[in-house]
Amino acid sequence: MALEDLYAKLVIEDEDQGVELQGGDATKEIVDYCYCLVGRFHTDRVVHFISIRNTMESIWHPKKGVCIKEMGAGIYVFQFYHPIDMSRVLENGPWTFNNHLLLLKHLKEDVNPMRVDLFETSLWVQIHEVPVELRSGRVLA
């Protein structure tokens, strides 16, 4: 049978199943929660998983790869394979996708990702031309 005939019989049943991964170590299942983050987007709208995965991987550029899994109900687990990759994502946030804020927390071992409270994040706000009388430590704290 010719190679063309074999390709003609090739069928992809569901393209949205599975996860496209980076790096050699990224093919493992989530077994080590040490470098896992759990997150959700602050929106009521449905967010396309494939788009999220591709966008976040390209923005973060983790050196050792990342495995992104959709857990359901808008909850995602991001498994990194090096502590620097995970730390960089946590420290350089907050992150957004299509103007929706990504709420992230470190996932502890033996904690169900669906039960993690994801309702807050830290933000830096820069305000220009603050009057001198409002620059006290009490006002700025």
TrEMBL record:
Transmembrane segments: none annotated. It comes from Fraxinus pennsylvanica. Residues 35-114 form the DUF4283 domain. It comes from the Eukaryota. This is DUF4283 domain-containing protein. It holds the Pfam family DUF4283. InterPro entries: At4g02000-like (IPR040256), DUF4283 (IPR025558).
